[in-house]
TrEMBL record:
Keywords: Oxidoreductase, Thiamine pyrophosphate. Pfam families: E1_dh. It comes from the Bacteria. GO terms for biological process: branched-chain amino acid catabolic process. The lineage of its organism: Bacteria, Bacillati, Actinomycetota, Actinomycetes, Micrococcales. Residues 52-327 form the Dehydrogenase E1 component domain. It comes from Microbacterium oxydans. InterPro entries: Alpha-ketoacid_DH_E1_comp, DH_E1, PdhA/BkdA, THDP-binding. GO terms for molecular function: branched-chain 2-oxo acid dehydrogenase activity; magnesium ion binding. Its EC number is 1.2.4.4. Its cofactor is thiamine diphosphate. This is 3-methyl-2-oxobutanoate dehydrogenase subunit alpha.
Amino acid sequence: MSPQITPIADTEQDLELSERLLTPDGTRIANPRLDPFVADVDAAQLRALHRDMVVLRRIDAEGVALQRQGQLGLWAPCQGQEATQIGTARALETRDYVFPSYRETGVIYARGAQPGDYVRMWRGEEGAAYDPAALRVAPLQIIIGAQTLHAVGYALGIQHDRADEVAVTYFGDGATSQGDVNEAMIFAASYGAPVVFVCQNNHWAISEPVAVQSQYPIAGRAPGFGIPSLRVDGNDVLACLAAMRWALEHARSGQGPAYIEAVTYRMGPHTTADDPTRYRDEEELESWRRRDPIARLEAYLRAAGELDAQHLAETQNAADQVAKEMRAACLGMVTRPPLAVFDGVYAEPHTGLERQRHEYSAYLASFESEA
Ligand SMILES: Cc1ncc(C[n+]2csc(CCOP(=O)(O)OP(=O)(O)O)c2C)c(N)n1
Ligand SMILES: [Mg+2]
């Protein structure tokens, strides 16, 4: 007999349980826990967050298009998760270090990625999608949850060096079932590591609904590890900014790790290799379209008389420009010669590596003689 799995709550209740500052129709509400963290945020800053989210959605759409046109092997869309990614990433200091999963296009955008950085890995051109040291973002992690351990290890280093930095790791709802994530939380709590865990609960782990990952709100698990947590409406960019400022302040001030569960929704497929119509209902998708994070902020700004045609036009132009540059960078990438895969493996050459290089070179040459 298969176990009976009941969702923790339906979508409406699910969101009621999370902290927010903007309701889905764009009404600003008071929240004593979050308000102090965004007291300085004015209309200009909100417009900048809006611009970020619109540009990110355009980058994401271009990634999907490039994959469909055969220019990328794969793409992991983040449509619907813009508020979570932009709100949390805009709270970071440049010196902080991020350990992301494959879906964090918005986080690398906020860290200053160049147009080619979004596609390089998905095109299979190089091991890392960008220079991790320059962006202070570790390579996009495909192994579910592994990056949480890397973040905690890095955070222990920060602690050892007495550096004024925080390590931040992003992962999904499905990842919370991985041993790695739980082990990372135990280490972080035991040693008081300056690390922030950001769980993007987008309701799905490929075709598995969040109800089979947890029978309890995910943020509720963290206190059991000794880590304070906050469950935030992940489609409310202002609330995400506030929650992340709380978490960063907590970790930076030597109080140890903090945990955020951002309740959001993956509007698109898991990746371009997935067909979500096979496992989820159109009504569910429709209910989340009504909570679109960009529309929500637009509604608030419009009602406040702070969204003019000039901002919208400039934003659209910026988005189109980034997408154009991203496409040009993608199509212009020069594929490295096959033997270059050996170059970045070790800092110094050694005989084992040289032997492998030689063998691979001979293998490649065998095709030339056949031709
Ligand atoms: C250790 C490991 N197991 C399985 C997979 C295959 N896999 C790729 S994505 C994924 C689901 C992840 O879901 P979630 O953590 O919710 O993140 P999301 O994709 O929704 O952002 C799985 C099982 C993997 N990449 N690594
Ligand atoms: Mg997920």
